[in-house]
Specification:
Chain A: F-type ATPases have 2 components, CF(1) - the catalytic core - and CF(0) - the membrane proton channel. CF(1) has five subunits: alpha(3), beta(3), gamma(1), delta(1), epsilon(1). CF(0) has three main subunits: a, b and c. Chain A: This is ATP synthase epsilon chain. Chain A: It holds the Pfam family ATP-synt_DE_N. The structure holds two protein chains of two kinds. Chain A is of the alpha+beta class. Helix content of chain A is 23%, strand content 50%. In chain A, strands 1, 2, 3, 4, 5, 6, 7, 8 and 9 form a nine-stranded mixed beta sheet that branches. In chain A, β1 and β2 form a beta hairpin. Chain A starts with a strand and ends with a helix. Chain B is an alpha/beta fold. Chain B has six helices and six strands. A five-stranded mixed beta sheet of chain B has the order 3-2-1-4-5, with helices on both faces. Classes of the chains: A alpha+beta, B alpha/beta. The interface between A and B is medium-sized, with 26 and 30 residues. β4 of chain A pairs parallel with β6 of chain B.
């Protein structure tokens, strides 16, 4: 059996996903980072963006994370963010509408949020 | 029906109506406590993970961050009081306000100027009535607070603590809220949020004895701490808001339960009085009839002779 790491994906008001994984890719402020089992203890600030989790049964879980932190120690990885959405939970049409609206209103943060959602869905 | 009996009947009717209302309020509050408790539980993983991360960085970072070091001579402090928008919750609000006033007095005795920030209409009304200055106030969400609400509250507080105390900022941030210990026990308590006392944070995270791993920081320890601490404050405020909401509902439930019980007792007592009044009326009627009959009998017996 391949080495595994335990992942907790946690939003401010709920625990979104937890399970075993072989690889987690997330975007920190200084670039994308991939964490595999046995990685050095790490604590980083996340950018808004999709997080990809390759689970140990070969599936891939993608979540849109809006800011937050990644911390890894003792083969336990936690991803913390105020808002976390699994790609299955994202309503594509709604996100597209939100993106258009944000663009027309020049609302940069809303545009970024909608964009992150769409990217999470497309990288599923 | 006699006048007295009618008065009793009317009062019984009105108390019964009141009892129905308080009973309904009790049941609503009971269901809300459960909901609020569930929210407290749901927010716990985020808070614990965040606390663990804060402990890791703060012990790992060598230099001193303004949010973790105590000012040499603190001159100003902020107190955030969490009360509720609505009353009918027994001593819930007055306990929280009392705790805040006690803390404020302690801080003032220690030579600090205190800025008060208040959540909830009850607390604001209390301070306004006494014409005390309120530095910031929020209302409208105390029954079911969301994380966004915690963020709006945290923003000016974090700004205040980052400003120099000479320029109107604060050195310390305290929070007064009602801790939800159990369904029956809630306690108003003051807590210092910032500057962090790391031992206490570590104790909460349960990592005191565990050896802490040496972390790699991305991008750097200072940046991570800069980003972490505001989130930590928000999450603590969010947790306090949720606990305060749960406590408020529990207090409402208890207050309404005793109101219902009292209404029941009152109905019993009134029913007894009404029965006695009715009985007295009947007795009187009988004695009137008997008296009348015997007077008639006496009169007719006299005429026969």
């Amino acid at each position: 059996m391949a080495a595994e790491l335990h992942v907790e994906l946690v939003a401010a008001d709920r625990s979104v996903w937890s399970g075993e994984a072989t690889l987690v890719v997330a975007r920190t402020t200084s670039g994308d980072i991939g964490v595999m089992p046995g990685h050095q203890p790490l604590l980083g600030v996340l950018e808004s963006g999709p997080v990809t989790i390759r689970t140990s049964d070969g599936n891939t879980v993608v979540a849109a994370v809006h800011g937050g932190f990644i911390s890894f120690a003792d083969n336990k990885l936690s991803l913390l963010a105020e808002i976390v959405e699994l790609s299955d939970e994202i309503d594509v049409q709604r996100a597209e509408r939100a993106l258009e609206r944000a663009k027309s209103e020049a609302d940069a943060s809303a545009e970024r949020r909608a964009d992150v959602r769409l990217r999470a869905v497309s990288s599923r | 029906m006699g006048a007295q009996l009618r008065v009793y009947k009317r009062r019984i009717k009105s108390v019964t109506a009141t009892k129905k209302i308080t009973k309904a309020m009790e049941m609503i509050a009971a269901s809300r406590v459960v909901k609020a408790q569930r929210k407290v539980t749901a927010s716990t993983p985020y808070a614990t993970e965040l606390t663990r991360a804060v402990t890791a960085v703060a012990t790992g970072a060598n230099d001193k961050h303004p949010l973790t070091t105590e000012a040499e001579a603190p001159t100003r402090a902020a107190v955030l009081l969490l009360s509720s928008d609505r009353g009918l919750a027994g001593a819930f609000n007055s306990n929280a306000i009392k705790a805040a006033e006690k803390l404020t007095k302690q801080l003032q005795d220690a030579g600090r100027e205190v800025d008060t920030y208040i959540v909830g209409r009850r607390g604001i009304a209390h301070y306004n009535f006494r014409e005390r200055k309120i530095a910031g106030q929020w209302t409208g969400f105390t029954d079911a607070p969301s994380y966004a609400d915690a963020k709006t509250i945290a923003a000016p507080l974090i700004e205040a603590i980052e400003t120099d105390s000479a320029e109107g900022g604060v050195d310390e941030l305290h929070i007064v809220y009602t801790e939800f210990i159990s369904m029956m026990t809630q306690e108003a308590a003051g807590d210092r949020l910032l500057p962090l006392s790391l031992d206490k944070v570590a104790e909460e995270a349960g990592t005191t004895d565990e050896a802490r791993p040496l972390y790699d920081f991305e991008p750097s320890a200072e940046d991570v701490l800069d980003a972490l601490l505001p989130r930590y404050v928000e999450s603590r405020i969010y947790n306090a808001l949720l606990q305060s909401a749960a406590s408020k509902h529990a207090a409402t439930r208890r207050a309404m339960k005793s109101a219902t019980d009292n209404a029941g007792d009152l109905i019993n007592a009134l029913t007894r009085s009404a029965n006695a009044a009715r009985q007295a009326e009947i007795t009187q009627e009988i004695s009137e009839i008997v008296g009348g009959a015997s007077a008639l009998a006496d009169a007719s017996a006299g005429s026969d002779k």
